[in-house]
Amino acid sequence: MSTSTVLYDHPGPRARVRNAVLSVVFGVGLAALLWWVYAKFDQAGQWEGSLWQPFTEAPTWTQFILPGLRQTLLAAATGMVLSLAFGILFAVGRLSDHWWVRVPAGAVVEFFRAVPLLLMIFFIFYGVPFLIQGPVPAFWAVVVGLTLYNGSVLAEAFRAGIRSLPGGQSEAAYAVGMRKSQVMRLILVPQAARAMLPVIVSQLVVLLKDTALGYIVAFPELLQRGVNDLSANRGNVVAAAIVVAAIYIVINSLLTTLANWLDRRTRRRGFRIPKQAAAPDSTPAGGATVAEPQG
Amino acid sequence: MHVFADPTNLDAYLSGFLWILKLTGASAVLALVLGVLLAAFRVSPVPVLRGFGAAWVNIFRNTPLTLIIFFCYFGLYTTLGLTLSDDLDLNNYWLGVVGLSVYTAAFVCEAVRSGVNTVPAGQAEAARAIGLTFFQTLRIVILPQAGRAVVAPLGSVLIALCKNATIVGTIGLIEASSVMKDLINSNGDAVIAIFAVFAGTFAALLIPTGYFFGWLANRLAVKR
After folding, report:
1. B4 touches chain A (CB under 8 A)
2. CB of A198 within 8 A of CB of A45?
């Protein structure tokens, strides 16, 4: 179904009245709930001007939120570049003709997709220093963890994209005398990357959100600086959390809008691969897809 | 492997994964109920309900889970004084379940809604033609078919939920990742073995779960 409007008839007089009544009832219920939350906040003194005033002062932004945002974006950008490279490398590896490349690449991808990102970050941050006899910066613990996990997810997306291309593409390339690596590099990967662009961008949203895990290993990103450190000085945890959540929501909504726009654009050009092929997992025909909701 | 020969460490390992399973179980049930409800809201004829569903999905899907869990603890519990249990561990556990459920429900909602989109329009038109109401159409015709199409995506959501349960460690629940951190800090000579055991346990739990859902999805797929 393309639109959900086929689910119900065009409302007649009775349905319009019923919908209006339901709207009012639910609206009142929602308003009551919001009022209750407001009253609770009020009771706890969370609407005090002194808690919100820091957000009108420049130092809050220049010393806490913006430096945190910068670190978040820096870690996300580094992680994006590295995980795209990792993804392409392992997708090609999994499609190799040699079993001694295919099997290890498959094992690596399956393993990193199954291990929680936090476990990996903990291992890199707390465990690897014992192995290399020196500290690992929190930045690299976060970036390497993000790369291994998101790179593995992207590898599956690329692989699904490459496999969904018509067989004639590689046959024609071989027929004009290209080598295996040329077929992959010049013919298959560019088309797969373009077809999978919406999936790739929505995975990058996941990656950006996951940088918040850096808070747990004291990496000075947005959650650490904007909520934890700021509220340690000002005692306004709830206010700071709401402001920082709004920043995350705005950034991620922009990226999601970009993904949807790319999706529409590729569809318009008739460049789209079937939904089930777009799923990283073995979704059956007619299956639905959804981005992997890692934290 | 000498680390796990010590009964204290073995107990910590087992209780860590027990917390993960408990968090996953309770949150999965709550998120599924909430998510299906939100999906029904999002396709309903009432604009206020549609707006509520859309707002929920946009807010919780775009906020990092770490921030949501952080807010559950420092916002709901510390600041607003919401206590869900007198036992400290159980209180953290339920706060974690609340955070995981509201976050995962947004993903369940999107999965179910994309499943509704796989049901051919003719099914809903036929249901309306024989006079079924919106709720009857949804309950008898659409959701059963959509449910079978979303087995695989819901499987991915469940797997992600199980992995995300480690984040509840931030608010002081000693689950698997916190146990691993403690073991690594006190056994610097066996870090690889410790990581291999914890990561291996997750892989052993989740890779078969992934294949199971793939198999189930193929078995339940609606033949069209």
Report:
1. no
2. no
